[in-house]
Amino acid sequence: MDKTVCIVDAGSDDENRRKNEDWLAQCIERQEKLLKKARENPRVLTPEIEAEVDAKVRAKIGEGGHMGYCHWFWSCKKEILREEYDIEWLSPAETNLGCMFD
Q1: Mean pLDDT of the chain
Q2: Alpha-carbon distance 84 to 48, whole Å?
Q3: Which of 4, 15, 41, 98 is 20 to 30 A from residue 32's alpha carbon, by CA?
């Protein structure tokens, strides 16, 4: 990702607009740090490793299917990848700021 573009509601009052802009700037900064860290990591997540990790996650937390499960799944997946494989992985929530997942 070379550039992140944010749109702030121009119809909000000045205080809300400033808060929105500050929040978005913080999110963009955090995302850029995470992406930089991921780019610097030489390890590659292969389909085989991903399938193995996904199986470990399901064994640890179950199959899910309930609201919020994806966040729990991604958190566990990130932890396993970091600790067992030395891979810095970014969840869909971390790479798609502004999108809501359940």
Answers
A1: 83
A2: 14
A3: 15
Dihedrals phi, psi of 35, to nearest 5 degrees: -65, -40
Amino acid at 52: E
Question: What is the C-alpha to C-alpha distance for residues 35 and 19, in angstroms, rounded to an integer?
Answer: 24
Contact 84, 95 (CB under 8 A): no
Q: Is 63 exposed, middle or buried (0-12, 13-18, 19+ CB in 10 A)?
A: exposed
Give residue for tokens 């400033």: 18
Model pTM score: 0.61
CA end-to-end distance (rounded Å), the chain: 24
Nearest to 95 by CA among 20, 9, 33, 41: 33
